[in-house]
Amino acid sequence: MGRDNWKIIRDRISAEISAGELEPGAQLPTESQLCQTFQAGRHSVRRAVAALAVEGKLRVEQGRGTFVQAAPLISYHIGRRTRFRQNLLEQGIAPAGEQLADAIVPASARVAAELGLAEGSPVHRLLRRGLADWVPINIGLSYHCAARFPDLAAQRTGGASVTDIYRSHGIADYFRKRTIVFARRPDAEEAGLLMQHPDQPVLVLQKTDVDAAGRPIGYSEAVWAADRVQFSFDSQDEGDAAPEGAADV
């Protein structure tokens, strides 16, 4: 091999993944074994693996090894009514979520403006991770007025959906007021939680939900693994709201 050794290695591993010879979740041979297989140096092997990790085809886990990424590509529909659970179930994908942290904090200027509160008002700050077929696809921060929803964190910890919590507080239906989407690189914690390479981009969705009267009830900022989802935006109402899952993003 010549000076483009790493490209040859990258393309051959990529071809094996595409052909199904390396199945999702399969562990690659060790770095030494790859060097022997491709008759190449460690630098070339590392560069090829890093490139495939950035493309989302491989996942490098420190202390464990390198694995073929097994994330499903999700088509996520966003409209006036958007529910995480419904989006995934309609595609035959199992939705799940886990609460990573919760606290009551003073509302920042941004959060207060989105929720129609005075700056510094107490709000629930919940950090959650959404999964599709047990693969991480997003992490999200959500904010809700602590006075209006005093038991929200406890209910979420107990497995209740946001939709159910809203209903328990007299909110029969709710809508997405706006969605802002932009791309950036993840920080180290985000990349770790999403199990992706830190050079691989993420999509950030900021949204505000309102009740039937148009009053803000929730604000969230979700970070999505960009290679595991594609978004479509619907201009028409989707009909009756469906039960919502572990991550309302």
From TrEMBL:
Record GO terms (molecular function): DNA binding; DNA-binding transcription factor activity
Keywords: DNA-binding, Transcription, Transcription regulation
UniProt keyword Transcription present: yes
CDD domains assigned to the protein according to its UniProt record, in alphabetical order: WHTH_GntR
Taxonomic lineage of the native organism: Bacteria, Pseudomonadati, Pseudomonadota, Alphaproteobacteria, Rhodobacterales
Protein name, entry field: Phosphonate metabolism transcriptional regulator PhnF
Keyword DNA repair tagged: no
Source superkingdom: Bacteria
Record NCBIfam families: C_P_lyase_phnF
One GO term (biological process): negative regulation of DNA-templated transcription
InterPro entries, A to Z: Bact_HTH_transcr_reg, Chorismate_lyase_/UTRA_dom_sf, CP_lyase_PhnF, Tscrpt_reg_HTH_GntR, UTRA, WH-like_DNA-bd_sf, WH_DNA-bd_sf
Domain HTH gntR-type, first and last residues per copy: 3-71
Record-linked Pfam families: GntR (PF00392), UTRA (PF07702)
